[in-house]
Amino acid sequence: MHQVGHPPDTLPRLTEIHQLLYERVLRNGRAHVETLTAETGLAEAEVATGVADLLRMHLLRLSPQDGALIPSSPEVAAAHLTGPIEAQVQLHRRSIEQIRSHLLTLNPTYIEARHLDRGGTSVDVLTGLPAVQAELGRLTSGCRTEVFAAHPVLPPPEALDEGLQRTLDVIERGVRIRTLYPHAVLAHPYIQAHFAKMTDHGSQLRTSDQVAERIIVFDREVAVLPDRVRPSGGVGAVVVREPAVVEYLYRSLDSLWSTATPFCAAPNRVGYGQANGDLRRAIVELLALGHKDEGVARRLSMSVRACRRHIAAIMESLGAESRFQAGYLAAVRGLLGPSGAAGADRTPPQEEPAAGPSDDA
C-alpha cells in the first residue's frame, strides 16, 4: 500500500488503510469496529489491525462508556508520544550540566599546570571572548623578551586606545614589540596617529601588501592563532606551545617582516606614504593574475570601493582599457617585481591621498 508517513522504528508506518479508517471515524465523530468494516469494505482483520495501530499512535481512543472509537488530533497524539521522550531529554541535559560542572572544577588546576609547563608540547583551545582576552592579557604581562604580531584587519579606534597603555607598559619593561599590518590600514588618519605614538615609544611597525592571518608570538615560545574551524559560531583562539610549530610560525612571520615596509607617517597623516608604491604594485600583480575586484580587495584587506578607486587610478596612469591589460602593460614596462625593488626604469604610481576616517580602507 502507499505509505503517507515515515515514523520512527517504534511506530507503525501510516498507510492508506490507516488514513481511510481515521477519516471515517472523524466524519462520524465516533465509530465501532463493526461499523468501520461495513462502511469501508475492508476485511475484518485489516480493520482490526489498522484500529490497533491508530490506538497505539493515540490517533484514536476508546470511549470509557461504550468502547466506541473517538478521534484525537495529530497534535494531541504527538504530545502523548513525545512527552516521555522530552522528559528523558531534560533529564539527560541536567545530567550533562552536572557532569560538566563536576569535572570543570579541575579546570583551574589544568590551566595552572599548562602555564607552568612553558616548555611542554601542548595546544589549548580557548572559546569565548573573555577567555581569549584573559589569556592574551596573561601572556602579555608575563612576556620577557618580545611580542611579535600580525593583524590582517583594521582595528577599531576604541580597541587601539584600550590597548595603548598596556602596550607602552610592556615596552617600558624592555620587551621588544614588532607588529605587522596590511598597507590598506594606512588610509585612515587615526591609524597613522596611533602608529606615530607607538613608534615614538619604541614599538616597531611595518606594513605589507598581504597579511593573511592574525598571529601573536610571545617570547618565541607561545603562539596564539584564531580558531576558525570549530563550528562554535563565536570567538575562539588556539594557543600553541609546541616548540617546532612555534618556531615555524615565528620564522614565517619574520620572513614576511623582512620584506615589509617600515612605517613612516605620511605628510599631514594623509595617504599611504612610503607604502603607496608597494600597494599599487600588489594590485597590478593580482590584476595580471586575473583576480576580480573583490578578490584583490580581500587579499589586500581593503574595501572593494577603495580597491576600485586604486584600480581606476592605475588604469588611467597606464592608459589601459581593462584590468587585465593594466597588468600586462605594467609587466611590459617593468613595473612588477619584488616589493620595494624599484629599478631605474620603474616609475612609481603617484600618491593618492585617502579621504579620512570615514573612507573605507
TrEMBL record:
Residues 339-361 are annotated as: Disordered. Residues 281-330 form the HTH luxR-type domain. It comes from the Bacteria. This is HTH luxR-type domain-containing protein. It comes from Streptomyces litmocidini.
